[in-house]
Amino acid sequence: MPKKYDQQLREHAVRMVLDKRAAEACSQRVAMDAVGASLGIAPATIRNWMPRAGEQPAMAGAAAPRESLEEENRRLRRELAETRRANEILKKASAFFAAELDRPTTR
After folding, report:
1. How many angstroms separate the CA atoms of 94 and 88, rounded?
2. Where are the alpha helices (DSSP H) in 3-68?
3. DSSP label at 7?
4. pTM
């Protein structure tokens, strides 16, 4: 039977639950409910993905040393600039195609 959720989504959901618990000091159940609602995944499914007591989270980057804040900041700024460029391209394309729809058809 094929897996419904890929490994990257699983790791992202677990990371979100752990971050929410740390940021808001809430219970794991509350964090799983909130993350599950935002991602459209049942909280029970996320609970199955959570690391057991004493285990390390099975995340791809968990074994690698954490990047420094400066490196993370640079990386995030690059991603933000790339996303802004992509949004500008999409805005221009949507304006172009909207103008195409306003033209009268010739038959």
Report:
1. 10
2. 7-24, 28-39, 43-49
3. H
4. 0.48
Nearest CA to 42 out of 54, 32, 57, 52 is that of 32
The token pair at 24 is: 């808001």
| Whole-angstrom Cα Rg for the chain | 21
pLDDT per residue, tens digit, the chain (107 aa), is: 456 888 898 999 999 999 998 888 888 899 999 999 999 999 999 999 988 755 555 554 444 456 788 888 999 999 999 999 999 999 999 888 887 776 666 66
Length of the chain: 107
Which tokens sit at 35? Answer: 């993350």
Which of 7, 9, 27, 5 has its CA nearest to residue 18? 27
| CA gap 39, 79 in Å, rounded | 22
Distance CA 16, CA 105 (A): 50
Helix 7-24 vs helix 28-39: crossing angle, to nearest 10? 130
